[in-house]
Design brief:
The chain is α+β, with helices and mostly antiparallel strands and 152 residues long. Helix content is 37%, strand content 23%.
Length: 152
């Protein structure tokens, strides 16, 4: 959760900060805004199964707490109305977020412990791939790709 900062020192300023913080938390915990409980559970389950070395039996690297934090913050940063992705893990220790509409309309984003977002998308015969850095806001290019896979 994003921590707030208020430059005010009065009792009223602290009251406003508490109410604002509480309201923000309630919105993030609701099923309409923020991560819904099913997505939080899926993320926690995948991480729980993949946080030890060799979790796949083929030498996979563990998914670190930093990777989990980055994936969670990325998902929290998505604007309201974006459908939830499916969550998975990769042998290199990254978490994968996937939006899939059909075999020829899909997007996969790998979230790394350093905050890199490696993505690959397929729209018909067109392919898009690259890397963006996550600084707290979903990069516009990635948001556009998500919307192309799952239009509102």
């Amino acid at each position: 959760m994003t921590q707030s900062f208020t430059p005010g020192f009065s009792t009223a300023a602290h009251f406003v900060e508490r109410v604002t913080s509480s309201s923000r938390q309630q919105l993030q915990e609701s099923n309409t805004f923020g991560l819904d409980s099913a997505l939080r559970d899926e993320l926690a389950t995948v991480w729980g199964q993949c946080q030890t070395p060799n979790w796949d039996g083929f030498g996979a690297l563990p998914v670190s707490a930093e990777t989990l934090r980055n994936a969670y913050q990325f998902l929290e940063a998505l604007p309201p109305g974006i459908p939830s992705p499916s969550v998975g893990a990769e042998p290199d220790g990254d978490l994968t977020l996937e939006w899939h509409r059909s075999p020829r309309r899909t997007l996969s984003i790998s979230v790394s412990p350093t905050g890199d977002l490696h993505f690959a998308a397929l729209f018909g015969s067109s392919r898009y791939y690259g890397t963006e850095v996550f600084f707290g806001d979903v990069p516009d290019g990635i948001l556009d790709l998500i919307r192309r896979v799952q239009p509102a």
